[in-house]
Amino acid sequence: MLIMQTPTAKQDVTEVIQDSVAPRARSWYKHLSVQILLAMILGVMVGHVWPERADALKPLGDLFIKLVRMLVAPIIFCTVVHGIASVGEAKKVGRVAIKSLIYFEVVTTIALILALLLVNLWAPGAGMHVDLKAVADIGVKAPAKPVNFGQFLLNLVPASAVGAFAEGEVIPVLFVSLMFGFGLLALGSKGKPLVDTIHSITQVLFKMIGFVMYVAPIGAFGAIAFTVGKFGLPSLLALGKLVSEFYACCLLFVAMVLTPIAYAAGVNILRLIRYFAAELMIVVGTSSGESVFPNVYAKLRRLGVEEPIVALVLPTGYSFNHDGTCLYWATVSMFLAQAVGIHLSIGQQLALLATMMFTSKGGAGVAGSAIIILATTLSATGVVPVASVGLILGVHSLLSSVFVPVNVLGNSLATIVIARMEQAVDLRTLQSELQSGPEGTAQTSLL
User: Fold this and answer.
1) DSSP string covering 384-417, please?
2) pLDDT-based confidence at residue 360 (cuts at 50, 70, 90)
3) Is the pTM of this model over 0.85?
4) What is the pLDDT of residue 133?
5) 425 pairs with which residues across the strands?
6) Are 281 and 273 in contact (CB under 8 A)?
7) Rounded to the nearest 5 degrees, what angle is found at the Cα of 324, between the Cα atoms of 379 and 299?
8) Secondary structure of residue 440 in the 3-state scheme
9) Any residues with CB less than 8 A from the CB of 416 and at least 6 apart, and which?
10) pLDDT tens-digit profile of 386-402?
11) What are phi and psi of 44, to 5 degrees?
12) Which of 92, 155, 117, 83 lies closest to 311 in space, CA to CA?
């Protein structure tokens, strides 16, 4: 059992983010979630009325993502290292990691099965009879050699420690962080000064994130305006049957899978969604889960989850727990097979599912990575032509605007679930925070 923190030990990154704001009622227009929602509505209007400005607005969304991604790697490193050092025993780290990985595998497998069942029943691509020659030139190219298990293991280890941070990929950074954290843990009391230094650096990094979040509405505006201006509302709705089926699939997953899990953990799923409303809206616009990692981390700490659990489970979830993306891969793969007239037997679908269970591991939540991994999966199985991926390029943004929020919600809930298993969460704080909402937390205090 992890030792519960005393009130004097709760000075952490959440206080750093909010220490400059007094706990008082705030006007509705000062809420980050409201600002992002208004910015997205304005972005849709601008993209629709002035589509020729789409390319000019795209850098606004890209800039926000780059600003956050610039800090994600060092934040993961500092939080994971400090979290391991705070646990005090290596066996506790291993126990938490094993529980997390088992949980991730079970939930993502359920997501894949649910998506396959629904897409077979709904059959959004049936009867399209698409000629592959029409989309072959605009399809996403798969890597020349699909990643096998050996290559996957090699990709876990970066070429150099510095290279892991330079490339910004989550898994190599996580690997370096774990190695460094265990090394620091082995030093015992000799490493305490370095632990304190890393904690101070973490506070500075989260303060920087506080500055970056001022431009979150601008980034959401630019991303949405570009999407609407580039593809146009009519073209985005051309594949409306696929979009409708996938949205229904994501809603069913939240209702039938995440809600019972939340209930078992003593959490009201609707309150949890409200608590992370601003972060979910940001990823709707940016399609990047990384863009809200620091804020999700801070809010989970604010909910009373102990730092070692958040530091270990959340970064691991970003690498291995892609609930929404698994729904996307299973749905789109079957849709493409239906659209080009390829009938897949139950055995072929199960083989496709098994391949996805492997290829789904390691997607880092970076905007656009899902479609590349989709192409890799199709290339590895060989049952659906990779060129057919070009069919969904026009609606990929609409699809990612719902599966990325599901990823963020799933990882937030997973962290709370593992914390409950380890009895490493203040239940009174958890319930009071969820009931009162995000008032006074990192989200609103950034404004």
Assistant:
1) S-GGGGGGGTTTHHHHHHHHHHHHHHHHHHHHHH
2) low
3) no
4) 60
5) 305
6) no
7) 135
8) coil
9) 265, 267, 272, 300, 303, 305, 425, 430
10) 778 877 876 787 888 89
11) -60, -45
12) 83
